[in-house]
Amino acid sequence: MVESVAPVESVRPFRAYVAERLDDGFRRGVRELTVADLPPGDVLVRVEWSGVNYKDGLAARADGKVARISPLVPGIDLAGHVLHSDDDSFGVGDRVLVSGYDLGVAWHGGYGELACVPAAWVVPLPERLTTRQSMAIGTAGFTAAMSVEALEARGLRPDSGPVLVTGASGGLGRLAVGILAARGYEAWALTGKPDGAARLHELGAVGVLGREELEAAGTKPLAAARWAGAIDAVGGPAMAYILATLQPGGAVASCGKAGGPGFSSTVLPFILRGVAVLGMNSVAIPIEERRALWNRLATDLRPRGLGEDVTEVTLDTLEAALDAIVAGRARGRWVVRVGA
Ligand SMILES: NC(=O)c1ccc[n+]([C@@H]2O[C@H](COP(=O)([O-])OP(=O)(O)OC[C@H]3O[C@@H](n4cnc5c(N)ncnc54)[C@H](OP(=O)(O)O)[C@@H]3O)[C@@H](O)[C@H]2O)c1
């Protein structure tokens, strides 16, 4: 607990959604905690908004294999304002956000009205973002921005050619389409939800492909070279397809495994076309890089349509969203109104 918390604050109960492994099963739901239940940190945050990520869905399930403590307050993203800080870098009232590191998996996260975190995890909220907008971006949008940054560091430019986004109807996918379109890329979306195509076009996708595209391309390790780059939230057969269809020198940012972790390919795309797989890990990125990328998300990597593809839930209505995201039913992002 932060040392400077006023005694009255430290005993006042607050609400949190808790997932807990029991000897005879699994329990999840809203409970009352106090600051004494929170892990030791330098900064006590009044959480205004959180988000729902695929990992949060797993952290709230008995078979999720993500939670490393029990009980756990899930929520790998949070935004709010500082109530107390033992670190001079932050003052009372500062707007901040936290995501990644152990938050929501091995450290109580964003699904509580209060959170206590190390100062080294805290990002000052960029000026041009509200706390709600930052959670509409969340880890999904942060990873989409990491992907664009990594692809551009390898040479991708808007005039390089078409860029494919898989899992396009999900949080990461829609935000990736929005970032690419806002930067002038020819963004293409691959989705299993054809009825969502109109929204992807509105966000700036030039073309929308159905999952049948994967079968149509066949299973050969090399097919017609089409994509200058790709952002893959799906893995599995989608990754095999991308490797087979990247243009010479192209690269794919590998972000997720919504369609499964394994895929079948050969070294041919690497040695005959010089393509590359860029691994994205948003959890462990150093804090200075994290803060810099959040500033870019507020400015030159700001996604088109920010805040529009958002469904609001509360701690009491969160559970359906947690289950829906694991079932692959995401459409954009859910934001959780915790204490706003
Ligand atoms: N590397 C990192 O640091 C990092 C950070 C954030 C997220 N991730 C990962 O990235 C992935 C996407 O995250 P998200 O927050 O965008 O999740 P999401 O909102 O659930 O979106 C995932 C999308 O993938 C597609 N999909 C789901 N199940 C599928 C299946 N069985 N086969 C093929 N496609 C399927 C669906 O889109 P369509 O119906 O449009 O195809 C779904 O909307 C997850 O695996 C997540 O764990 C990784």
Structural features, described:
This protein is α/β, with parallel strands linked by helices. The protein has two domains: 7-125 and 309-337, Medium-chain alcohol dehydrogenases, catalytic domain (Quinone Oxidoreductase, Chain A, domain 1, Alpha-Beta Complex); 139-279, 3-Layer(aba) Sandwich (Rossmann fold). The chain has ten helices and 15 strands. The chain has helices at residues 7-11, 54-59, 131-153, 171-182, 197-203, 212-216, 236-245, 268-273, 287-298, 318-326, and strands spanning 14-22, 25-33, 43-52, 77-85, 95-99, 114-117, 122-124, 163-166, 187-191, 207-210, 227-232, 246-254, 276-279, 310-314, 333-337. Strands 3, 4, 5, 6, 7, 14 and 15 form a seven-stranded mixed beta sheet that branches. Strand 14 (310-314), helix 10 and strand 15 form a beta-alpha-beta unit. Helix 3 (131-153) crosses helix 4 and helix 3 crosses helix 9 (287-298). The longest helix has 23 residues, at 131-153. It is globular. The structure holds NADP nicotinamide-adenine-dinucleotide phosphate. NADP nicotinamide-adenine-dinucleotide phosphate (NAP) is lined by residues 53-55, 139-140, 143, 167-173, 191-193, 233-234, 255-259, 280-283, 325, 328, 330.
